[in-house]
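Changelog note: in this version the structure field was regenerated for every chain. One regenerated record is shown below for reference.
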Amino acid sequence: MKTLLIDKEIKYEGFQLAPHWIYKNFKIQGDAIVAFIGECDVKLNEMVDIEDVINNEPIYSKLMLSFISEQFNIGLVEGVFRQRLLICVIKEALEKRGIKIIRNGDDLFFNGKKLTVSIATKSTTSVLIHTGINIISSGAPVKASGLKEDIGIENIEEFALEVLKSYSEEIHDIIQASTKVRGV
């Protein structure tokens, strides 16, 4: 899986969760995950999570570390497994730093406050995943925590690179493990 930390600020508005967005914008073809920093403001008309739409819960963060992944030749259920794996990779990266994090499904919490948003969906050609981690928690529409503001992580780019590398390696290792066994 190819990775990229995008060095310019991008406002995540939901439309980026689209087939070939990574390829069209960054010339990375195939399975990939990218990370970027910027405001997150997803209005209801761009929401993929129907439950959030029904509950009238748009997403907002003044500053968020976003990960977008596009993965081909897998189904939605496998895509949700891979989304959960990304959440677990993020949790491990934080716990390595001595930070106690609680995971509930595809959400991470710090001190009882929501740290992440995440969704996986299927397009006609691929599975798409967006996971966002609040950097700044103030201004969020829910009780939120942030990497910098509440947890004290100053080097967001270094943290993002670690997550990108770990996730890519996990996916590679899973695929490799599937090629070394004999069928029974």
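Spot check on this record: The domain at 2-178 is CATH 3.30.930.10 (BirA Bifunctional Protein; domain 2). The beta strands are 2-5, 32-42, 59-72, 102-104, 107-110, 113-114, 116-122, 126-136.
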